[in-house]
Amino acid sequence: MENYNQTSTDFILLGLFPSSRFGKFLFILIFLIFLIALFGNLFMILLIFMDTLLHTPMYFLLSQLSFIDLNYISTIVPKMAYNFLFEDKSISFIGCGIQSFFFLTLGGAETLLLMFMAYDRYVAICFPLHYLIKISRKVCMLMIIGSRIMGSIHSCAHTTYAFCIPYCKSRAINHFFCDVPAMLTLACMDTWIYEYTVFMSTIFFLLLPFIGIACSYGRVLFAVYHMHSTRGRKKAYSTCSTHLTVVTFYYMPFAYTYLRPRSFCTPTEDKALAVFYTILTPMLNPVIYSLRNKEVIGALRRLIHRFCSAKLSTNILA
C-alpha cells in the first residue's frame, strides 16, 4: 500500500463494506436500496410527466427532486459497488474530483429545492387565491435554475480548493466516496481556514434553508389549525407531514456531520451518517411521496387503466 501511494496520484476509497459475510449482506442490501431508488425516482418522473392532472407547480418541483435524487445516488453507489465486486478500491484523481463536484452540486441543489417546496406549500395553503400568480411556471423555473447554479458555485469553490492542496504519502480516504472533509485529513497543511468555510457554507446551505422550512411550516400549521374544512385540514396535514419527514431524514444527518468540529468526528460515524443522506433519502423520497399521496396513487390507477384499455383495444383489433 505504501509503495502504491508513493508512485500513484490515485486515491483509495476504504469503503463501507467489511471483508466478511456481513459485508456481503450489507452490499446486497444497499444495492437493493439503489435499485428501489433508481426505479422509484424514474417512476415518479414519468408518472408526473404522463398524467396531466399532476402538471402543477408542486409536482413539477417534486419531479425535479426525483431527478436530483436519481443522479445523486448514481454518483455514489455504482462506483462503490464496482470497488467491492472487483476488489479495486482505487479512484483516479480526476474521477475523485468529478464525483466530489457532482455530490456537492446535487446536495446543495437539493437543500435549496426542499426549501422552495416548503415555500410552495406555504403559499398554496396560506394564500390559495394568489397561488398561481406567486408560484407560476416561470417562478418554478427560476427556483430550479437558481438552486442548481448556487449548488454548482458552492461545489466549484470546495472542489477546486480540495484538489489544489498538497496531500501526504497516504492517499487512503476513509470513506466510501470522495467526501472533501474526509480528504482533508490527508492534507500536508493546516486546513483550519478551509474548515471554517465549510462551517459557513453548511450554515448557508443547510441551517438557513432548514430555518426557512421551519418558519414556512409553522405558518402553515397555524393556518391549518384554523381551517373549517375537515377534509382540507387532513389533506394539508398529510402534505406537510410527508415533506417534513423527507426534510428530517435529509437535513439532520447532513447538518450533524458538517457542523461538528472535526476533532469530534470519527470515520465510522461519518460513513454511517452519510448512508442516510446519500443512499437512504433518495430511496425514501419516492416511497414516501407515492404511498402517502392520494393524488399520486390516483394518477397511478389512471395510468394502469389507460394501459389496460389500450391493451384491450389492441387485442380486439387483432
- Reported CATH architecture: Up-down Bundle
List the total number of helices: 11
Span of the ends, CA to CA: 66 Å
What is the total number of structural domains? 1
CATH-derived topology: Rhopdopsin 7-helix transmembrane proteins
How would you state the average pLDDT, rounded?
87
Question: Helix/strand/pairing class, anyone?
Answer: mainly alpha
Shape designation: globular
GO cellular component, one term: plasma membrane
Membrane topology: Multi-pass membrane protein
InterPro entries: GPCR_Rhodpsn, GPCR_Rhodpsn_7TM, Olfact_rcpt
Pfam families: 7tm_4
Question: If you had to describe this structure to a student in words, what would you say it looks like?
Answer:
By secondary structure, the chain is mainly alpha-helical. The protein has one domain (11-305): Rhopdopsin 7-helix transmembrane proteins. The protein contains 11 helices and 3 strands. The chain has helices at 2-7, 21-50, 57-85, 93-126, 131-134, 137-162, 180-184, 192-225, 230-259, 267-291, 294-317, and strands at 11-13, 90-91, 172-173. Strands 2-1-3 form a 3-stranded mixed sheet. The longest helix has 34 residues, at 93-126. Residues 40-289 form the G-protein coupled receptors family 1 profile domain. It is a multi-pass membrane protein. The chain crosses the membrane at residues 25-50, 56-78, 90-106, 200-224, 236-252, 272-291. It is found in: Cell membrane.
